[in-house]
Amino acid sequence: MHHDFIPDHGLRVVGRHHEVYLSDPRKVAPEKLRIILRQPVRETTESGL
């Protein structure tokens, strides 16, 4: 997703992602685990900076 979605929307990655666990991975089965992934991005400029 990161390799396609972010550049396709005129964005670039500017830092490490953060994982916010909505359920406790020690108590919840992996298929029921809920996580929010937050990826810092910035708009790309025409010059590619």
Structure, described:
The protein is α+β, with helices and mostly antiparallel strands and 49 residues long. It has one domain. Helices cover 14% and strands 29% of the residues. It has 1 helix and 4 strands; from the N terminus they run αββββ. The chain has a two-stranded antiparallel ribbon with strand order 1-4. The longest helix is centred in the first third of the chain and has 7 residues. It starts with a helix and ends in a 6-residue tail after the last strand. The mean pLDDT is 90.
Q: Which whole number gives the mean pLDDT?
A: 90
Number of domains: 1
Strands ordered across the widest β-sheet: 1-4
Number of helices: 1
Organism: Actinopolymorpha rutila
InterPro entries: Reg_factor_effector_dom_sf
Protein name: GyrI-like small molecule binding domain-containing protein
Summarize the structure.
InterPro entries: Reg_factor_effector_dom_sf. This protein is of the alpha+beta class and about 50 residues long. Helix content is about 15%, strand content about 30%.
Describe this protein with a few key phrases:
49 residues; alpha+beta; 1 helix; 14% helix; 29% strand; elongated; GyrI-like small molecule binding domain-containing protein; Reg_factor_effector_dom_sf
Note the topology.
Blueprint: H1 2-8, E1 11-13, E2 18-21, E3 35-38, E4 41-43
Antiparallel strand pairs: 1-4, 2-3
